[in-house]
Automatic annotation (TrEMBL):
One of its GO terms (cellular component) is cytoplasm. This is 3-deoxy-8-phosphooctulonate synthase. It catalyses: D-arabinose 5-phosphate + phosphoenolpyruvate + H2O = 3-deoxy-alpha-D-manno-2-octulosonate-8-phosphate + phosphate. Its EC number is 2.5.1.55. It comes from Mariniflexile fucanivorans. Pathway: Bacterial outer membrane biogenesis; lipopolysaccharide biosynthesis; Carbohydrate biosynthesis; 3-deoxy-D-manno-octulosonate biosynthesis; 3-deoxy-D-manno-octulosonate from D-ribulose 5-phosphate: step 2/3. Residues 8-265 form the DAHP synthetase I/KDSA domain. One of its GO terms (biological process) is lipopolysaccharide biosynthetic process. Its main location: cytoplasm. Belongs to the KdsA family. Keywords: Cytoplasm, Transferase. Coiled coil: none annotated.
Length: 272
């Protein structure tokens, strides 16, 4: 899998990590364009290969009254507009077999959520679109088990797969990142570290997931030192009022400093 396989991606010769970054969910056109413009300005400055991330719907919710989306095609059209406006590739997650063909008409990378990565029919349907497939490691899975998810993509005639580590369940209400898994998973496919979801605190009694955004830079730095190929970071200009995952998102105002520090670390790592 080469980054050059992704339409519109920039800075592929910079020897930097690549970045999947954006809001958890598409809440509207203005917010998506605002976030995308800011992130693109930063990543162009730092020469980071960038893919805009946004969920067109949220199927895995704690409560029936939780936000699930603004409408599938409306959100997908916003992702398409982001791509066309800023000449940037996009990624979104899918949850049902029928989502694969639908979303593939609008985005460049299809993401399989962590809870669904063992769903063979879903993985195969995504792979058969020919898009790049981002496989989120299940919170309940070992790094070694992810080779089977990757193989499902390959066996479907698609050689474009990534793995994303988003932490492992630690008790009922916390996540940990076991960095021993990074070199293991990189044997199977390029490996991304999902920094913000790794800091979730799920299963809160309120039905609203908590998080530790104060630890974002700590986890991200460790990922870069341990040679992850890419980073996944959810960001918003108003996390406190975001409709999904606000508790663990990075404030957009803090993104440039974080990425500047990470690029500096990457340059040191590249000399070792």
């Amino acid at each position: 899998m080469n980054l050059q396989d992704i339409p519109k991606i920039k800075h592929t010769n910079s020897n930097n990590f690549f970045l999947l970054c954006g809001p958890c969910a598409i809440e509207g056109e203005d917010m998506a364009l605002r976030i995308a413009e800011k992130v693109i300005t930063i990543t162009n400055k730092l020469e980071i290969p960038y893919i805009f991330k946004g969920s067109f719907k949220k199927a895995n919710r704690s409560r029936v009254d939780s936000f699930t989306g603004i409408g599938d095609e409306k959100a997908l059209n916003i992702l398409k507009k982001v791509s066309e406006t800023f000449d940037v590739p996009t990624v979104t997650d899918i949850h049902e077999i029928s989502d694969a063909q639908l979303a593939a008409q609008y985005v460049d990378v299809l993401q399989i959520p962590a809870f669904l990565v063992r769903q063979t029919d879903l993985v195969v349907a995504a792979a058969e679109t020919g898009k790049v497939i981002n496989l989120k490691k299940g919170q309940f899975m070992s790094p070694e088990a992810m080779k089977h998810a990757v193989q499902k993509v390959y066996d479907s005639g698609n050689n474009k797969a990534w793995i994303t580590d988003r932490g492992t369940m630690f008790g009922y209400q916390d996540m940990i990142v076991d960095f021993r898994g990074i070199p293991t998973m990189r044997q199977y496919a390029p490996t991304v570290l999902d920094v913000t979801h790794s800091l979730q605190q799920p299963n809160q009694s309120t039905g609203v997931t908590g998080g530790r955004p104060d630890m974002i830079e700590t986890i991200a730095r460790a990922g870069i030192v341990n040679n992850v190929d890419g980073l996944f970071i959810e960001t918003h200009f108003d996390p406190a009022n975001a409709k999904s995952d606000g508790a663990n998102m990075l404030h957009l105002d803090n993104l440039e400093k974080l990425l500047t520090n990470l690029v500096a670390i990457r340059k040191v790592v590249n000399t070792l």
